[in-house]
Here is the input.
Amino acid sequence: MAGEILQKFSNYRVRLAIVGEYSKYNSKSLTEFIYESNKGKHINFVHSMDEALQVLS
Here is the structure.
């Protein structure tokens, strides 16, 4: 379901920054997903609100 929601943001070219601490999750697939998402401009996983504002501006 999360993938479908993120795909909607991407399809409609709405930029999204998701703020959180992701290093505590040891999932290789999640790490790769975050890495690939952060290479683009639509969906970004960041660690702080300041970083989110910088990515979105």
